[in-house]
Specification:
Layout: E1 4-8, H1 13-24, E2 28-33, E3 43-49, E4 54-55, H2 57-61, E5 65-68, H3 81-105, E6 111-117, E7 125-130, H4 140-156, E8 162-167, E9 169-171, H5 176-186, E10 202-204, H6 205-217, E11 223-227, H7 235-245, H8 257-264, H9 269-272, E12 274-277, H10 280-283, H11 294-301
Parallel strand pairs: 1-2, 1-5, 2-3, 5-6, 6-8, 7-12, 8-11, 9-10
Antiparallel strand pairs: 3-4
Helix pairs in contact: 1-6, 3-4, 7-11
Amino acid sequence: MAKNVLLTGGTGFIGKYLTDVLIANGFSVSILSRSERKNTDLITYYKWDLEHNYIDEEAILKTDYIIHLAGEGIVEKRWTAKRKRDILESRIKPIDLIHSVLQKNNKALDTFVSASAIGIYGAVNGAEICTENTPPANDFLGTTCQKWENAVNKIESLQIRTVKIRTGIVLGRNGGFLKKLTPSFKFGFGAILGTGKQYLPWIHIEDLCAIYVKAIQEKGINGSYNATVLDNTTNTVLSQTLANLYGYSIWLPKVPSFILKLFLGEMSVAILNGQRVSSEKIKKTGLNFHFEDLETALSHCLP
């Protein structure tokens, strides 16, 4: 009988892709959903409601692995006090709810894998290469990611193997980062943001999903792992590469930092800052990325 993987955030951009990859690897998949959905031959849906602290416990009790992807988007809306609270709670509440069910039922999991983000290293600019041992930053992104990962430690305290995947910008078709970016570039209006010197650590969605599959399959994988390509991609490099793939050179002036700060507020730090991040630790497990060249990755993602 196929082992089951339960996903939070399974109906999102990464979750949909990961569902297909898991099924292709012989797993059965369950998904926690806030709305009623019909089961298919390959996917079972279970209801949960974080606002009312409800989860169908059968989803937890029947699974072998849990992958936690759920969370409000970081750059979807301005960072008001309420929005910041929503971003944090949308990541931590699911873990707390799952923990309570596991603990109450003395349920053993093979593995609990949680998304995290390279934002743990902070919204900073610089050439320093961050590793999993780099201390968390004290800004909003850094503290949010640290609290996110600390919540996962509650699962680990139940003697369950836990893995945290610190993800950069995810490149893939029909969603995520490129879905927001490509319309302007496609019609010739692409532009460099701010100085353009800020690094943009990225990963192709196929390689990210391969990391998640490896994390549940290999018992020797524990703790935090960065999921990014270590290259010299900056906002300028990405913008110029994307424009070239659409057959033109960027002609618009750079969008000044003060304009982005005016329209986006504090959230602009996530766009105007970036750091280099090493993925050496996950590669030492034997995993090789299929996409390490930016132009190749972008070409694969564009319709």
